[in-house]
Amino acid sequence: MVKSLQDTTTLHNGVKMPWLGLGVFKVQDGQEAVDSVKAAIKNGYRSIDTAAIYKNEEGVGQGIQEAGVAREELFVTSKLWNSDQGYESTLAAYETSLKKLGLDYLDLYLIHWPVPAQGKFKESWKAMEKLYKDGKVRAIGVSNFKEHHIDELLKDAEVKPMVNQVEFHPNFAQKELRAYCKQHGIQLEAWSPLKQGELLDNPTLKEIGEKYGKSPAQVIIRWDLQSEVVTIPKSIKEHRIIDNANVFDFELTAEDMAAIDALDTNQRAFADPDEFNKI
């Protein structure tokens, strides 16, 4: 059972990854990114998730530096954007992200989307494997990959992805993909766990929250953790960053979990990875 903000899951290569972290999608570079990262770290967060396409790696890096916590205590993730896919371009993109963040290594580097162009994600994966073998990144993984994408990757992969970060929330609980990833020893991670705030008025989540004196957001985050899914809710407000982590003093019952599971409509709110090919 996850007991605190510093609790970790052990990835299949032995690296420990916090169950709960801060996501910074749509956080403005500059002071907004600096402040949200500093607020999170000050309040006990140890995992920060960014991406090249978020265009806020500099601000995130500055926030990490100003927070004054030892680098080895933090778990920093970034992601390879679609237009940088390919072998040499992946290696170059990694160095660019590292430089912007002002770090010597990443804890986790992900292929952001399985863009279909010429099976380029397989070339990108070879580069990821090199970065991993060279000790430049502690763990490598994918994002938005369906089962068939991972099957394709595994045909030639020497290193199996450690993480798959996907759309995951009570309306889209990805049961088959979760089972597939568990079977392959790949840790599932949720992006947009609160469905960008859309679920915060849900009557079921409100009712469950009232029992525990918790908000629908806290109920969702707790459900993620009890579903063994790593989660990275985003906020730029310090009080929300604190609230999102205030989920370790209660436990959802089997009935609560079943009621939340029943909200699954199997409908994506965001792009389908098979159709998403933005460069």
Automatic annotation (TrEMBL):
The keyword Oxidoreductase applies. The record marks K79 as: Lowers pKa of active site Tyr. Substrate binds at H112. Belongs to the aldo/keto reductase family. The active site is at Y54 (proton donor). Coiled coil: none annotated. This is Aldo/keto reductase. GO terms for molecular function: oxidoreductase activity, acting on the CH-OH group of donors, NAD or NADP as acceptor. Keywords: NADP, Oxidoreductase. The keyword NADP applies. InterPro entries: AKR, AKR5G, Aldo/ket_reductase_CS, NAD(P)_OxRdtase_dom_sf, NADP_OxRdtase_dom. It comes from Aquibacillus salsiterrae. Signal peptide: none annotated. Residues 21-264 form the NADP-dependent oxidoreductase domain. Gene3D superfamilies: NADP-dependent oxidoreductase domain.
